[in-house]
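re: that chain from earlier
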Amino acid sequence: MQTLLLGIAKQLVNNPDEVRVEVVEKENLTVLQLYVSKDDIGKVIGKKGKIAQAIRTVIKAASVNCDKKVAVDIM
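^ sequence. v structure.
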C-alpha cells in the first residue's frame, strides 16, 4: 500500500522528491500518512477534495485482501 500511495502522489506533484509516506499501525487500522511540500498540498487534495477522495478510494480497493482497514491522512 505504501508504494502504491507513494507512486500516485509523486505523479501529482511538482516536487516528487519531497513526497514521503509514513505507516502508523493501530489495532485494526493501518494509517498511511502522506507528506508533501506546502506548494503541492492543493494538487493532492484537489477541488472540493475530489483527488484526495479518489486516492483514498484506490487505496481502500487495493487493501480489500488485508485483515486491517487502511486509511490515508494527508499531512
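The beta strands are 20-25, 29-35, 69-74.
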